[in-house]
Write a structure and sequence with these properties.
By secondary structure, this protein is mainly α. The protein has a domain of 126 residues.
Length: 299
């Protein structure tokens, strides 16, 4: 193995490690949010998560480091994208109030399937019949997780799917905005949006945390989110997204572990089976995307 190959392998290994660190932070974020929602209003939890992200982003993106941070060629899309992220965050925390961590993340794994489905009409990136079949199978996996019956499904599962849908369009708009706005500008808008929306209303939903543990996690939850996104950015600087994407599904291991340790929850067989179907569909989509890309290059 020559020096350049060894350096590339080392860089990819570091990227995978950073990806695992990001997933650990995101699992801590959801676990903290679920736990705190039992002690303080969920709106307060969402506000703390956004304030932490805002403070972190201001360290790197501020008038001194980025004089043009508010300069955007498409302010309307930036606003819609920020609102989609805010909606996803709110819906996710409300869903976690009632769902197990493993249930929630299993539904969230449908995100890549939704992106592949809607990338056609929005971005012109149409999927072929094989990838469309994988998307359909993936949604069958979501149905296995939610297990609808004549009595319907738990409303929290609808909230979780709503959060996943918001995240889907948020990701698509991120790709659209990458062609016109800098990544720092887009990061700034997405980080501060929730703080701008919720801070004026803070006196109406604020409840003083009952003990020091709630205070501690009120501070930590913003750090978990900010650190997770920072690790994710560092990982993608060192390795291509196609290499890192499959490791995202390992987050269910953290969720099962934290769910059992903190809440005494263990996912049932239906949740694990559905999660497996969704993960397998997502991995097949990734594989077919690589095949199509390679075929396009050789033409």
């Amino acid at each position: 193995m020559d020096a350049s190959s060894a350096e590339e392998l080392r860089g990819r290994s570091v990227a995978i490690g950073l990806m695992f660190a990001a997933l650990f932070c995101f699992a801590c974020l959801d676990t903290s949010g679920k736990w705190m929602s039992r002690h303080i209003p969920i709106w307060e939890v969402v506000w703390a998560r956004y304030m932490g992200a805002t403070l972190f982003v201001f360290i790197f993106v501020n008038p001194a480091t980025t004089p043009s941070m508010l300069s955007t060629a498409r302010p309307g899309l930036q606003l819609i994208r920020s609102l989609l992220l805010f909606g996803a965050t709110v819906l996710n925390f409300f869903a976690l109030r009632w769902l197990q961590l493993a249930q929630n993340v299993s539904i969230a794994f449908a995100g890549p399937l939704l992106i592949a489905l809607f990338a056609g009409p929005i971005l012109g990136e149409w999927v072929g019949p094989r990838r469309l079949a994988a998307i359909i199978v993936g949604f069958l996996g979501v149905i296995v997780v939610t297990r609808p019956s004549l009595a319907g499904i738990h409303p929290a599962m609808l909230l979780s799917f709503g959060a996943t849908t918001c995240n889907c369009f948020y990701s698509i708009l991120t790709r659209v905005l990458a062609a016109s706005d800098s990544s720092r500008t887009t990061t700034f808008f997405s980080a501060v949006s929730g703080a701008v929306i919720l801070t004026p209303a803070l006196p109406f939903f604020w409840v003083t945390p009952p003990d020091w543990k709630v205070w501690l996690f009120l501070v930590l939850i913003g750090g978990f989110g900010a650190l997770g996104h920072w690790f994710l950015i560092l990982a993608h600087h060192r390795a291509p997204a196609a290499l890192l994407a499959p490791f995202g599904y390992t987050q269910i291991v953290w969720m099962i572990g934290f769910g059992y340790i903190v809440f005494g929850d263990l996912p049932d067989g239906w949740t694990l089976t559905g999660a497996g179907i969704v993960i397998a569909s997502g991995l097949y989509l990734l594989y077919r995307s690589r095949v199509v890309k390679q075929a396009t290059k050789t033409v």
